[in-house]
TrEMBL record, chains A, B:
UniProt cross-references to InterPro entries, sorted A to Z: EBP (IPR007905), EXPERA (IPR033118)
Boundaries of every EXPERA domain copy: 58-200
Subcellular location(s) per record: Membrane
PROSITE patterns assigned to the protein according to its UniProt record, in alphabetical order: EXPERA
Membrane-crossing segments per the record: 30-51, 63-82, 115-138, 150-169, 181-201
Biological source species: Zostera marina
Protein name per its UniProtKB record: 3-beta-hydroxysteroid-delta-isomerase
Pfam family, any one: EBP
GO molecular function term, any single one: cholestenol delta-isomerase activity
GO CC term, one of those recorded: endoplasmic reticulum
Protein keywords: Isomerase, Lipid biosynthesis, Lipid metabolism, Membrane, Steroid biosynthesis, Steroid metabolism, Sterol biosynthesis, Sterol metabolism, Transmembrane, Transmembrane helix
Domain of life: Eukaryota
Major site of localization recorded for this protein: membrane
Length: 221, 221
C-alpha cells in the first residue's frame, strides 16, 4: 500500500481517498449536536410564531419543518456540496464528521458521485432558500405561501427519486453494512419522502379549493 | 478487435456496444417524422379546442404544448428508458434511430448513464402522464389546472438541471463534435428549459392572484 492510500470503510473497497481521516465522533454525539441545534431553532420559531394570533397550529408546525429542513439543506448539505475533500479534514469538525459517518450508509458521498452532488447542489442552493421562503410566506401570510411550499416539496421529492433511482441502477451496493443501509440510507431519507408528500397533497388541495373559491367570486361579480 | 466489438461514433471512444448497428436514417428524415407527427397532433388539439368557446388562445396554445411534450416524454423518452439495447436494433425503426442520432450530442444515452436513465425514467413515467393531465385539466377547466401545470413544469426544470449538472461534473465531454453538442445537447434541450420556466412563472402568478381573490371573498363573507 502506498503512503497516500489510507484504509477506509467505504464501498467500493478499492476507492482511493488521499489523506482520508476516519470519523472519530460517535453517532450519538453527531445526533445530539444535530438534534439539539434543530430543536433549539424549532423551539424559537414555535415560540415566536405563537405571538401571531392569525397563525394556526398547523401553520406553526409547518414553519418549524421549513426551518429544520432549510437549515439541513443549506448548512449540512451545502457544506457537502462545496467541500469535496471533507473526508480528509483532520480536526473533528461536526459537518465533515456527519458526512464521514453518513458515507457508511451511502459511500457515493465519499466517492463524489455526480448524481449525488447534483441533487445535493440543487437542494442546497435552490431548495434550501425555497424552504426559508416557505417559512417567511406562512409567517407573513403571503398569497404565494402554498405555491412555494408545493414547489419546495416537489423539489425534495424529485431529488429523492433521482437519489434512489441512480443508486438502484448502479447496483444498490454503496453501504458498508445492512445496519447503515437501513439506518442512514433508508430511514434518514424517509423523512424527506413522507413529509414532502403530505405537504404537497395539502398544498394541492388548498390551491385547488382557493381556485374554486376565486371562480365562485368572479361568477358572483 | 474482437468480432463482438463494432466501431461506433460515440464518446468515450473505448465504450463497448455489443451488436451496435449504426443509424441509417438521416436527421432530416427523423425531424420530418417527429415534426409531422407532432404537428398533426397539435393541429388536432388546436381544432378541437377551438370548439370550446370558453378556452382562450393562451389555453389552447398551452394544450398544444402539453400534447407535444407529453407525447415526447411518453413515446420517445419512454422508448429509451425501457429499451436498453436500442443501439443494437437492426431494422431502422424511428425510435431507436432517434436515440442513435441523439447519442452523437450526448453519448451518455448510449452508455446508459444512471443519472440520464433516472431523469428520463421519471420524465417518461411521471412527467409524461402529468403533461396529459395538464392538457385535460385546461380543457375541462379543472380547479387543479395551474397546480398540475406548475408541477409538471417544475419536474421538467429539475430534470434539465440534473441532466446538465451531472454532465458538467463528469467532464462535459459526451459529444462527438461541437456541432452535435450545440444542435442536440444545447438547442434541443433549451425548449424544455425556456417553456417550462415561462409556464411556471405564469402558474405562480395565477395561483397567487387566485389566492388573493379567494381571501378577499372570505373577508367579504
Amino acid at each position: 500500500m502506498s503512503p497516500a492510500v489510507i484504509d477506509h470503510p467505504y464501498v467500493p473497497r478499492d476507492l482511493i481517498l488521499p489523506g482520508f481521516v476516519p470519523c472519530v465522533t460517535s453517532i450519538g454525539r453527531i445526533l445530539a449536536v444535530y438534534g439539539f441545534s434543530s430543536i433549539a431553532g424549532v423551539f424559537l420559531v414555535w415560540i415566536l410564531s405563537g405571538l401571531s394570533p392569525k397563525l394556526t397550529k398547523m401553520d406553526r408546525t409547518l414553519m418549524c419543518w421549513w426551518l429544520f429542513t432549510g437549515l439541513t439543506h443549506m448548512i449540512i448539505e451545502g457544506y457537502f456540496v462545496f467541500s469535496p475533500e471533507f473526508f480528509a479534514k483532520e480536526s473533528p469538525m461536526i459537518l465533515s464528521e456527519i458526512w464521514k459517518e453518513y458515507g457508511k450508509g451511502d459511500s457515493r458521498y465519499v466517492s463524489r458521485d455526480s448524481a449525488v452532488v447534483s441533487v445535493e447542489g440543487i437542494t442546497a442552493v435552490l431548495t434550501g432558500p425555497a424552504s426559508f421562503l416557505s417559512l417567511y410566506a406562512i409567517w407573513t401570510r403571503k398569497p404565494y405561501s402554498y405555491t412555494i411550499q408545493f414547489a419546495a416539496s416537489l423539489a425534495q421529492l424529485y431529488g429523492c427519486l433521482v437519489y434512489f433511482l441512480t443508486s438502484y441502477l448502479d447496483g444498490d451496493n454503496f453501504y458498508t453494512s445492512r445496519y447503515y443501509y437501513w439506518a442512514y440510507y433508508i430511514t434518514a431519507n424517509a423523512f424527506w419522502v413522507v413529509i414532502p408528500t403530505l405537504i404537497s397533497i395539502r398544498c394541492w388541495n388548498k390551491i385547488s379549493s382557493s381556485s374554486i373559491q376565486s371562480n365562485k367570486n368572479k361568477k358572483n361579480i
